[in-house]
Task: inverse folding
């Protein structure tokens, strides 16, 4: 089974403690109209190189503008979304495992507080060449392709770590209320299948925040209302189930807390521009 944007996978196994590439994807400008909504990857770190155009990504705490030449780093477990609306964006994406950096948690390539977007500057031609070569070699699968790609990947990782992944600007909490908004958002990420009512926040002993303030500040920070965010979070997980399982649309709708498969399909098509069945047919090749 091939997954979204038809990534090229390794068939060779590696030591779990050794940094190694799992797959590499190439996304052309034509794919921008079918976004990959809110989702995360356990144990997998992602490197995304923007090779053309510009747009916005959502990662962990905020919407971040990106453009050609930017390198985006998703630590494992971080909620993220690539949604470029009408922007013509092309990119390469590498999924990797075995990241154990000194002073960081397992699965972290950059500190949690640092910016996820890095400028490649004058190194962009060299970096994009390594991405392109990895993709080409893995696609062709010539003799010793796995060893060749792994060595290219190790070169790429050294180049990025020593020249690009410089300490970023720390994200500071502006106030106690802002910290509460962020904590509620984390709760929503972990419990996205549960019912969530903003009106109940004021009487919640843990948070005790004004619902109107929360809704306003949440949208100001994350670009979506709380309800829109939860919908996108659920649809993102539904996309994963559609391309990785044989569950029916109704079963998937129920698993991400949509009681009606018809309503689920309506929301899915509104966000992704394809129905669930069309999405599965387009991005899953048996």
Result:
């Amino acid at each position: 089974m091939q997954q979204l944007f038809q990534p090229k996978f390794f068939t060779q196994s590696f030591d779990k403690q050794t940094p190694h590439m799992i797959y590499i994807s190439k996304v052309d400008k034509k794919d921008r109209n079918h976004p990959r909504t809110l989702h995360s990857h356990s144990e997998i770190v992602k490197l995304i190189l923007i090779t053309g155009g510009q747009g916005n990504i959502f990662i962990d705490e905020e919407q971040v503008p990106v453009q050609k030449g930017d390198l985006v780093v998703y630590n494992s477990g971080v909620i993220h979304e690539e949604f470029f609306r009408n922007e013509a964006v092309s990119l390469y994406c590498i999924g990797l495992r075995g990241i154990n950096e000194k002073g960081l948690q397992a699965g972290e390539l950059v500190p949690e507080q640092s910016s996820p977007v890095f400028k490649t500057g004058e190194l962009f031609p060299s970096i994009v060449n390594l991405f392109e070569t990895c993709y080409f070699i893995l696609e062709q699968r010539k003799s010793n392709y796995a060893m060749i790609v792994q060595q290219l990947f190790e070169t790429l990782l050294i180049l990025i770590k020593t020249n690009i992944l410089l300490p970023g600007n720390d994200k500071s909490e502006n106030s106690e209320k802002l910290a509460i908004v962020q904590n509620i958002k984390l709760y929503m990420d972990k419990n996205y299948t549960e019912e969530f009512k903003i009106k109940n926040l004021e009487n919640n002993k843990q948070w005790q925040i004004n619902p109107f303030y929360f809704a306003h500040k949440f949208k100001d920070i994350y670009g979506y209302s709380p309800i829109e965010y939860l919908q996108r979070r659920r649809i993102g997980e539904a996309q994963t189930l559609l391309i990785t399982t044989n569950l029916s649309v109704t079963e998937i709708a129920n698993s991400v807390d949509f009681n009606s498969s018809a309503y689920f399909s309506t929301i899915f098509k509104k966000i992704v521009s394809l129905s669930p069945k069309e999405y599965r047919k387009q991005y899953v090749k048996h």
Q: What stands out?
A: The helical segments are 124-140, 145-163, 176-190, 211-222, 226-244, 249-255, 261-272, 276-283. Residues 145-163 form the longest helix (19 residues).
